[in-house]
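Worked problem 6 (solution included).
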Amino acid sequence: MGTLELYYNEIAPTNITLLAESDTLKGVFTVFDDPNFMFNGDEQFYQYTLNWLKKLRMKSTKISEEAEHIRRIFFNHVTNRIEFYKRGTF
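Solution. The predicted structure is:
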């Protein structure tokens, strides 16, 4: 069974990148003109993306699985920001 780790980073909030690795597949999925995506199976691109994601993850907030409290804070923050902009008081 696979695992999924979800992180949020304010520096790259709109960049959706999925690193995939299995017995038969190793590559990078990236969103292009949502909901479309591209897949790149090049080993050098995979390693570059892996290193980039490791650095980005150190500066990000984990909001998947056991991070329930942080996840709740995160989504409350998002909800508050939406309400703030809906009121037009920015």
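Discussion: The mean pLDDT is 84.
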